[in-house]
Amino acid sequence: MEEDGRLGSQTSRVAEGGRAAARVAASPSVVPTPLAGPWSPDITTSDAALRKLLLGLPGVDQVGAEARAAALATRSVKREAKMWALEKAITMIDLTTLEGADTPGKVAAMCAKARRPDPADPEVPPVAAVCVYPDLVGAAVGHLAGSPVAVASVATAFPSGRASMKVKLADVRDALDAGAQEIDMVIDRGAFLSGRYGLVYEEVRAVREAAGQALLKVILETGELGTYDNVQRAAWLAMLAGADFVKTSTGKVTPGATRPVAVVLLAAARDFMLASGRRVGVKVAGGIRTAKDAIAYLVIARETAGEDWLSPTALRIGASTLLNDLLMQRAKQLTGVYSGRDHFSID
Asked: Can you give the three-state secondary structure of 11-77, one letter per residue?
């Protein structure tokens, strides 16, 4: 009960921090009081306390979120800014392969492309990370040794999240023991949707502790959450539990990333930083295939959360086929003509 009171007493401050997300505004009018930090390891929670906190967040304006996302997507980008945006987007990519048919050879090829996206142009920056299943982490680590590209691994019974906590933590340990520097975990959507917020919080908290210094990205699978209110609540729940990033999707569910969901997540991350003093990143994943899409997400990030989110430390793009289109568009900016699709290696 004492712990419930400690968390419950922060509801009004969390609600104040989330009020701008509900309006889908570019920035809140008043900086909220910092949260005391319920993500600290010594704090436990209950469904009742978390329900009070999360349901205290103002509702998201669905029409407003969708209208803002649509308006931002129409922003034109001038040539000089477009070149910067294309290269920035490359640095934010988590180059991903998560198929049952993945092989060490496929991972080797992907790692080579991650390190040197365009072998003919050393000015093209490397991507942020490669993301693979835990059993292929060791292969990726070997191929990326000495490079700035991180190795990320999905875990916690990806993509369903339906396994015992013992199995989920073993999944995490396997990835870390193999050398993973980043963990992409999935939340139990069934638990979240049935109101068992305490269970979701404790699972994220346990993975946070098991991950140690590794970067923790928490996949919400927004396509299964049903409403923008649920997206906002799941994001706050993950951030309170210690997530370094909140991520839209596994890429296995339709829809994956959408622009309105990105607006909601970035607004939540911005408000959480104002309320807690801790910046949490946003990763969009699932269905992002063109440079136009990638640049639209950069615009949304800048206009919703601010320039601090225009960095691989705060914005990631999970993709398997996006990189080639970014390279093609970059070459067009340099030469004035499009290269054929076979000019670049297959992602």
From this structure: HHHHHHHHHHHHHCCCCCCCCCCCCCCCCCCCCCCCHHHHHHHHHCCCCCCHHHHHHHHHHHHCCCC
